Amino acid sequence: MIIVAGEIHLKPGQREDFLDLARDAIEKARAAEGCLDFAVSADAIEADRVNIFERWRSIETLEGFRGSGMDDGQIAMIARASVRRYAAEDVGSA
Questions:
Q1: Strands, sheet with 35-42, edge to edge from the N-terminal-most edge strand
Q2: I need a labelling partner for 66 at 20 to 30 A (CA). Which of 13, 31, 37, 60 fits?
């Protein structure tokens, strides 16, 4: 399983617009082959932050969905980001 997780900090006043634009990607990802979960959500504490969480069956299904990624409008909203991909070798109940 592949997990993508991290945070994106947006320029002031951009979070709601960013989340609105992310909705289409969320819907497409959740319908995509190999997507186990996909979320882009507003952080409860930091007003400029959104949290990213994705789970995919494999690196191939993740890369097959990715395509070109965010458009220029979304990229322009970002002040900084730290989103990483992880390979989960051992999965069990928490």
A1: 35-42, 49-56, 2-10, 78-87
A2: 13
User: What domains does the chain contain, in order, with CATH numbers?
Assistant: 2-87 (3.30.70.100)
77 or 94: which leads in pLDDT: 77
pTM reported for the whole predicted model: 0.89
pLDDT in tens, 42-75: 999 999 999 999 999 999 999 999 875 678 888 9
